[in-house]
Structures are given as structure tokens and as C-alpha cells.
Predict the structure.
Amino acid sequence: MATASRPIRVAVVGCGSIAQSMHLPFITQLADTFELIGLCDISPGVLKHCGRQFHVPESAQFTQVATMLEKTAPEAVVVCDLLHSDPSIAALNA
């Protein structure tokens, strides 16, 4: 859990237009509260673009939800995916 000295570790599933215009900017603007530690999208091009735009290293960019959850161990997951149920269930199980 986050403390006053450490932001909440957040990963994002789905890097489409809403994530790019709303969720990712808000997460990065609130750096005292949130740390963006991972991105996941099925499109490698979109993933790379968002990684550059929101300063997420390639080592924290994934095309598979399960791999991202395992490698990053987030405290919170924002699911911006059209098929919300599978990534949400995977995040809860992790």
C-alpha cells in the first residue's frame, strides 16, 4: 500500500485513445500519488508510442497482461481495454 513517502505502483492495460488522452496523462501528472510502472497493449506500435510519450521503459511494456502483472507486481491496475473482464480477473488474481 502507498504511504506518504511512496506513490501507488500502477500498471495500465489498453493504450488506446482514451488511455492516451485521459488516464495516462492523469497518472503521470499525479506523480506524488501514482507511479506508472507498466503498460500493456496488443499493438506493439501503440505500446512503443505510449512508452515514449509517458516515459515507460521498453522493459515495462508488454503485449500480454499476465506477463506484465508478473514482471511489474502493480498495486493497482487501470483497465482501458474493450474486453474488460479478462484483464480485470487476471489483475485480481495477481
Notes: The mean pLDDT is 90. The helical segments are 17-29, 44-53, 65-72, 85-93.
